[in-house]
């Protein structure tokens, strides 16, 4: 078992008729992912075609889920309409909404998060690369790829990866794959200050997942989510964990690309987070090139075989 | 996006947040008109720059204090004359300082006591939080460190908005009673309304004051907005002051590049915010010093790469360039061609190390190798970082 999604998960794509959503829906289909529906209000009844694939388009998430059995949505809707798109998933009772959209206003996300507090739907993102559970085929094909991550860099295996950043996740996954270490599931939680699933939420899932034997946690400056996760790991997690925090050189008060990557106080600096990682027994990657090797060190110390 | 105090005070007026009467001036001729709007008597003159520590700041010509108390309007006019067009250096501006292009005159208030009040996002709660303190007019970080018991917070439920009992808690926490309590309650509600309606990132009033006559006023105002929400606030976008921003950052934003200047000498060009941050970190780790943060985004085009090269070379401190691209989906060969074009177009003479990884990387590396240009290739981030650090040393 992987976490959150498996190769059998049926997904729908909100914004499939846009350039961005369409391009990545095609890449997911090529990867072997079960993209079973598209949703674009006003375009219900049309068909999204790619090679031999014919994906029906619906006017609403509820219609799409009812007709196709889709349980997860990939959201590529532009920022002004993205909050609404997320709530629609919640209303339709999906298992998971993966919001790829970058640039959603914070106030919208504050309201969405409040509205979803008691909902059964889990939110991943926004402003995230999505989630991949690699498959068993060549270049990990046959897996479930939701979002914008490159599928081919993955390899099916037993390491869980969780990260706030897209390309840094790819960096970690690639380092693992070239060392012959596969992944159970790779999760991008997004770089915004208000997001759905947290580092800690994902760490708990990896801890409970029998297939996952080691974890790479990638964080950055801003907020205290990584520290919260680290404390929980110290108390509860027996699997080897490697960690990396980006932004040691970031000046205070400047937003480093991600809306959430900003040093406000003493607790959300890279130095403070790295210190917390060390204190909690997480093997710290000293540079971003060291992420896979840090996990190998952590696994060796605990006598865990990663592959 | 940040705005000036005088602009924030205009928004305060619109939303019913009481503040001392004030008027702004951008030219010496304006001084008379602006001062005419205020009553005769003690007047404050305040330099308008997007940086704190103005009161203790020093101008580059030696004139002291970016905020001045003046007994008369005539004195205020004199102080304004010294400030306007002058460059103010504060603890937050860096040694270069900021040129004062607007001065703001306000009625000097009869301050009874100073407090602190701010509204911002509580990330852990994913909700707005109102922060208040009986210690105003000083750095709140200092209060938080030395006397944390004097700071209290109220987290707002966005579904309900600010509740009466929460306002009562805040007011009593500040130790206010009677007319002062009533006035403070009104001010807090109005300030929250402004925070919410304008998609503010932060509204900070330091100090909030009580006066001898029982008024509660926002003496200062520091307001910033959520950049992602500006599309629905054209009136706030109109308040943007490009003079307060780095010209290179403005140019970068035109090309959808995210650029932040730093003070090192190794320029970075990276795709993705997290990778861009950690590229700076790895340069530092190997003993170098990054000149900038630059994220070309997930789908960088050739044109963007050329624009990015021009921007980073606009920094005279740059002695070498480190390009770090993980082309997951984007084609590394497109990036390689962009790099080759950019190097030719700008006539680059500085050392350049390129680390490409990902989609179609072999073709990208071949393009760089066959270009006839002196481009050093790095195999991993660590390898490339060590190479560029060595080349600029």
Protein described:
The complex is a heterodimer of chains A (307) and B (393). Chain A is of the alpha/beta class and 307 residues long. Helices cover 33% and strands 22% of the residues of chain A. Chain A has helices at residues 19-31, 61-68, 79-91, 106-115, 166-178, 199-208, 225-236, 270-279, 291-302, and strands at residues 10-14, 34-39, 47-50, 53-58, 72-75, 96-99, 122-124, 130-133, 144-147, 156-163, 183-188, 214-220, 241-246, 283-284. In chain A, strands 3-4-2-1-5-6-7 form a 7-stranded mixed beta sheet, with helices on both faces. In chain A, strands 9-8-11-10-12-13-14 form a 7-stranded mixed beta sheet, with helices on both faces. In chain A, α7 (225-236) links the parallel β12 (214-220) and β13 (241-246). In chain A, α3 runs parallel beside α4 and α6 packs parallel to α7. The two termini of chain A are 15 Å apart. The model of chain A has no long low-confidence stretch (mean pLDDT 96). Chain B has 393 residues and is of the alpha+beta class. Chain B has helices spanning 5-15, 28-36, 73-83, 140-146, 164-173, 178-197, 234-237, 247-254, 273-285, 302-313, 332-346, 361-369, 381-392; strands spanning 22-25, 43-47, 58-59, 67-70, 87-89, 98-99, 103-107, 111-122, 127-133, 151-155, 200-211, 216-218, 222-225, 258-261, 266-270, 292-295, 320-327, 352-358, 376-377. In chain B, the strands form 5 sheets. In chain B, strands 8, 9, 10, 11, 12 and 13 form a 6-stranded antiparallel beta sheet that branches. In chain B, α11 packs parallel to α12 (361-369). The longest helix of chain B has 20 residues, at 178-197. The two termini of chain B are 37 Å apart. At the A-B interface, α4 and α5 of A face α9 and α13 of B.
């Amino acid at each position: 078992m992987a976490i959150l999604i498996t190769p059998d998960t049926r997904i729908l794509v909100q914004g499939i008729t846009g350039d961005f959503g369409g391009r990545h829906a095609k890449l997911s289909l090529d990867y072997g992912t079960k993209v079973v529906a598209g949703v674009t209000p006003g375009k219900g009844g049309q068909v999204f075609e790619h090679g031999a694939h014919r994906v029906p388009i619906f006017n609403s998430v509820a219609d799409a889920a009812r007709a196709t059995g889709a349980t997860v949505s990939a959201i590529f809707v532009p920022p002004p309409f993205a909050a609404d798109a997320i709530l629609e998933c919640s209303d339709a009772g999906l298992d998971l909404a993966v919001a790829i959209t970058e640039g959603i206003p914070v106030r919208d996300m504050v309201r969405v998060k409040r509205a979803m507090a008691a909902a059964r739907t889990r939110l991943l993102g926004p402003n995230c690369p999505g989630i991949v559970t690699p498959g068993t085929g060549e270049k990990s094909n046959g897996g479930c790829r939701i979002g914008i991550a490159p599928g081919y860099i993955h390899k099916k295996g037993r390491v869980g990866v969780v990260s706030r950043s897209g390309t840094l996740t790819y960096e970690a996954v690639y380092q693992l794959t070239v060392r012959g270490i596969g992944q159970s599931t790779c999760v991008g939680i997004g770089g915004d200050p208000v997001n759905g699933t947290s580092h800690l939420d994902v760490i708990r899932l990896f801890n409970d997942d029998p297939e996952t034997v080691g974890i790479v946690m990638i964080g950055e400056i801003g907020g205290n989510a990584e520290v919260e996760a680290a404390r929980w790991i110290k108390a509860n997690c027996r699997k080897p964990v490697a960690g990396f925090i980006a932004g040691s050189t970031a000046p205070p008060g400047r937003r480093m690309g991600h809306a959430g990557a900003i040093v406000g106080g003493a607790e959300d600096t890279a130095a403070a987070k790295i210190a917390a990682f060390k204190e909690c027994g997480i093997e710290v990657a000293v540079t971003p090139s060291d992420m896979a090797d840090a996990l190998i060190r952590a696994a060796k110390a605990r006598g865990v075989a990663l592959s | 996006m940040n705005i000036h105090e005088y602009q924030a005070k205009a928004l305060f007026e619109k939303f019913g947040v009481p503040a001392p009467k004030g008027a702004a001036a951008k030219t010496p001729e304006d001084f008379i008109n602006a001062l005419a709007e205020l009553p005769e008597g003690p007047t404050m003159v305040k330099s308008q720059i997007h940086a704190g520590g103005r009161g203790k700041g020093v101008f580059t010509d030696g004139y002291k204090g970016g905020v001045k108390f003046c007994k008369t309007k005539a004195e205020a006019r004199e102080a304004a004359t010294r400030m306007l067009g002058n460059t103010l250096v504060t603890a937050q501006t860096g040694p270069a300082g900021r040129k004062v292009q607007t001065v703001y005159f306000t009625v000097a208030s009869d301050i009874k006591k100073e407090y602190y009040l701010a509204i911002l996002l509580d990330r852990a709660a994913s909700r707005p939080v109102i922060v208040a303190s009986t210690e105003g007019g000083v750095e709140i970080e200092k209060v938080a460190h030395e006397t944390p018991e004097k700071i209290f917070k109220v987290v707002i439920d966005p579904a309900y908005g600010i509740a009466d009992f929460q306002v009562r808690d805040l007011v009593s926490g500040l130790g206010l009673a009677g007319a002062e309590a009533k006035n403070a309650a009104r001010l807090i509600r109005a300030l929250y309304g402004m925070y919410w309606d304008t998609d503010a990132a932060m509204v900070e009033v330091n100090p909030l004051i009580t006066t001898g006559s029982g008024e509660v006023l926002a003496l200062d105002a520091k307001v910033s907005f959520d950049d992602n929400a500006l599309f629905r606030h054209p009136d706030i976008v109109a308040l943007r002051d490009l003079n307060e921003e780095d010209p290179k950052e403005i140019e970068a934003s035109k090309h959808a590049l995210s650029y932040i200047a730093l003070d090192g000498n190794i320029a970075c060009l990276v795709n993705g915010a997290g990778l861009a941050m950690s590229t700076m970190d790895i340069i530092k780790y190997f003993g170098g010093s990054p000149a900038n943060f630059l994220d070309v985004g997930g789908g960088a085009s050739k044109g963007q790469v050329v624009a990015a090269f021009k921007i980073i070379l606009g920094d005279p401190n740059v002695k070498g360039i480190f390009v770090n691209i993980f082309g997951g989906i984007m084609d590394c060969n497109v990036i390689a061609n962009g790099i080759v074009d950019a190097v030719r177009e700008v006539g680059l003479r500085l050392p350049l190390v390129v680390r490409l990884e990902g989609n179609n990387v072999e073709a990208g590396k071949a393009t760089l190798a066959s270009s006839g240009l002196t481009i050093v290739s790095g195999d991993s981030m660590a390898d490339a970082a060590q190479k560029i650090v060595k080349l600029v040393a």
